């Protein structure tokens, strides 16, 4: 509950700041300012309702306008904040050119005394921020709704049996089937994965944002996934946010030919050699008794074999290292999805995207093939990875 109030407080503060710079600083007192103030208040309510509407089917139509405003709001805030310094400099220059008021009246610190000049600065700032935010969001929408980028990566595993060299994984995460995606989103991802002709398909969590009843039809193209040794799935945090939990999706995916690795492992036999492919539940399931169990997934195995672990969150590598994992495949971060969130992700996760070594374990983090919240990606295009071990 405390977290909810913090979020509402932040949203209210951001909207007040936008009102101050986009309404109060650009209008004179009167009917126009009143109408614009009402509009900003309405947009604040829209954001709150939008996050609730994700779980209420009959309100799902609010998702598009609501999340689009979230994206525009986000970039308006940061651009306006960046413009505070040049705005203050311009105000100081104009103020210095004004005659000193009779009687030595004190001037407003951040703007010239002349009302016309104050409006000019306010409107120029608002125009620059508006153009910048709309342009950025427009670009981000085209990236989010376009084809994912195919990233190719090669990982060298010390001591790997030469017969396993060249084994290829198609790695995808964060598909986020939901109210803003259609069946075509899944069909495109399946088509692109099949075009890679991978040996193993690994879906590392956050596949859905809703129940099987609501989103089952969107997932059905997954039955067409093609690979030599099968398709595998592990839960992400969003599977635990659905009304019925992850269990129903585990069953649905099984019907579609995708095996869920629920704190367990399978053997991948390739050219006479064996690799262990393990999967653990997301840490979000811990509160409900369905969290990761590394001992169950990795204990008692033949340690001469290499082991690849599917784990939704990169932070799970700390436990993976304690159990001798060679390579961990993860998602969750979206690569930040919208700059500058990529600078915030490291506060929670050890890797934002790409390949890195953490505690002696190689970790590949894919940016995800979908999006969460706003259908916008800036600086982090959607991704499907073809990863080859050597």
Automatic annotation (TrEMBL):
One Pfam family named in its UniProt record: Metallophos
Segments forming domain Calcineurin-like phosphoesterase: 167-335
Listed Gene3D superfamilies: 3.60.21.10
Domain of life (superkingdom): Bacteria
Stretches that traverse the bilayer: 35-54, 61-81
Keywords, sorted A to Z: Hydrolase, Membrane, Metal-binding, Transmembrane, Transmembrane helix
Annotated protein name in UniProt: Metallophosphoesterase
Gene source species: Nonomuraea ferruginea
